[in-house]
Amino acid sequence: MVIHLDAELEAALTEQAARNGQTAETLAIHALRERFITIASLQPQDEWERGLLAAARDCGVSLSDAALSRENLYD
To answer: Which residues, 6+ apart, have CB-to-CB distance to 50 below 8 Å?
Structure first.
């Protein structure tokens, strides 16, 4: 399979790959695998889980408990 990227997407992919110390191809394959294979392997057991998976969004990294503590919320 050959995928043609527009200049904007190619630049963003190349920049992110350089930051991660990997090739653009490796980053693209990882992103596609994460998006399509990981989600596809989850099979909802009931209507509630179907709704939950439909509403789920990848928000990046999760914050640590320390980052969410009362003392650190306003830093």
So the answer is: 44
With residue 59 as reference, give the H or E element that holds it: none
Q: How many domains does the chain have?
A: 1
* Total-model pTM: 0.51
CA atoms within 13 A on the CB side of 18: 6
Say how far apart CA 3 and CA 15 lie, in whole Å. 18
Q: How far is CA 50 from its chain centroid?
A: 20
Residues spanned by the domain of 72: 1-75
Who contacts 14 (Cβ-Cβ below 8 Å, separation ≥6)? 24
Per-residue pLDDT of 7-55, as tens digits, reads 999 999 999 999 999 999 999 999 888 888 766 567 788 999 888 878 8
